[in-house]
Amino acid sequence: MYFVNSSFQYSNLDFGHISKFYAPQSYLADVNVCSWLKNANELKYLSLTTSEIHSVEQKCFSNNQQMIFIEMTGNHLARIVHHVFSSLPHLTKINISSNPIETVSRGAFENLPKLQVISVLNTTSHITVHYELFHGLNLKMLETNTTFLCCLLSSNAQCSLVVPLHISCAHLLESAPLRTACAVTAFAILLCNVLSVTLQKYPCSKKLKVFEITVLLVGASQMPLAAPLLILWIQDLIYSASYPIFQDTWQSSATCFVVFTLFVHNKIESLTTSLFLATARLMIVKFPMKTKFKQTNFYQREAVKCATVSTLLSCLVTFLTWLVSFQMLGSLQLSAICSPLCDPTRKMILIKIIIWILSVSQFLSIVCVISFYIDLLRTLHKSQKIIKSGSNMEQTNAVMKAQLLIFTSSDILSSVLPNFLFLSSIYLKEYPVLVIFWTVITICSIKSVLHPAVYTALTLRSNVKSKEQTGQPTVVKFVQRPDTARQAEEKDAKK
């Protein structure tokens, strides 16, 4: 066994019969460590701590087949190259802590059948590794302060860190059913909204009708939700099983911020559109002769104002998020789902404020929409009592009631229940992001599918009725006038 200090001359040392070598705080910046280790055939324990080592070559320890323990802490190792620790049959522990490691090449720990402990503590937070870095090892313990490295371990190994529930150790979309649901929901939203818009008959010379403007407004408010879902699905395909390695890169990327912006826009525009349509329906039913909402120009102008206001609010929220994240955190760091309603790391108080504002606003809007529709149905019921309506009018009213019921129930289901979950998550110490994923992808998307589907059904029903009316021959009834009137006309003709 040899224990040396910083003034020791390594060139004078014969490593041929040394089994243990400890050299703390030695200066090895100008020494080729691998060259004088080639003759250390019997070396078993090597400790080179704080020795100013900047690099270690490939197969540096290939001649040290008896090696059991390697410690190279407190140096300047930035890269662990390919096969640097490979093919050491007796090696049980490697300690490379307190090094500014940026890259660990694939195969750095290959063919180490007895390796049990790897210590990579106090390194940089962003390390580039391959997701199969520990593949084929029989590790028992990984000591690290980098969470995603724990995700690369097999189920038999332990990690010094406990992986938080909000971090995925698999894909971005953790399970296959979730990935399928994300893709199906995105395409369903696109299909329903595109179908409802394209089925309308847009005249070239005439103005748009109120119903056509409504369909366009609903499509513009609900279709953007398909974009973030598709982006999440595509990113999951790109990252695949290597997502834990690129999790920080994804959460701080511009693409994630785009997803965040689209989610914010969908929430705000969905809220304003529901209020606008509920107000318009109430005014048309309650004041059919006085309201301006029957005028196409007025209705179109107000619809454009509604869309503009929601877009400006969305831009304001996203700009504030961007500004605060860079001022407080130094970089943009969102959650894995990139949603404004999810912040498991609790890094930004602004996200909590956004969750509260959006949740309270949606709750108040739902209350207003329900009260408007109740008033509308009361007015409709009173008018039915005053005017004895026929079967066609009763059928139309039944369709309207069913339409309002679907709209209201979908608003409640896609807004109130998710917001309760999002608000509850603020005060939980830890919660799985998988629950948030399922909520955003399924429950929050119900409205974006049902509303355009209802308008599609109404359009098809209207088209069928118009075809039936045009297909029937016009019947002109001649009513025979009384004889007295005919005689009077004959007398006048004679005169």
Report the CATH C-level class of the largest domain.
Mainly Alpha
Sheet with most strands: 8 strands, parallel
Report the strand count: 10
Structural class: mainly alpha
Average pLDDT metric: 80
Radius of gyration, taken over Cα atoms and rounded to an integer in Å: 36 Å
Helix content: 40-55%
> What is the strand content?
5-15%
In the CATH hierarchy, what is the architecture of the largest domain at level 2? Answer: Up-down Bundle
* Count of folded domains: 2
> How would you describe the shape?
elongated
**CATH-defined fold name of the largest domain:** Rhopdopsin 7-helix transmembrane proteins
Q: Please tally the helical runs, counting DSSP H or I stretches of 4 or more residues.
A: 13
**Helix-strand sequence:** EEHEEEEEEEHEHHHHHHHHHHH
How would you summarize the topology of this molecule?
Elements (H helix, E strand, L loop, with lengths): L1 E2 L16 E3 L10 H5 L7 E3 L21 E3 L7 E2 L12 E3 L7 E2 L12 E4 L20 E4 L2 H5 L6 E2 L16 H23 L11 H13 L3 H14 L7 H5 L2 H33 L9 H34 L19 H38 L4 H36 L6 H9 L4 H26 L11 H12 L1
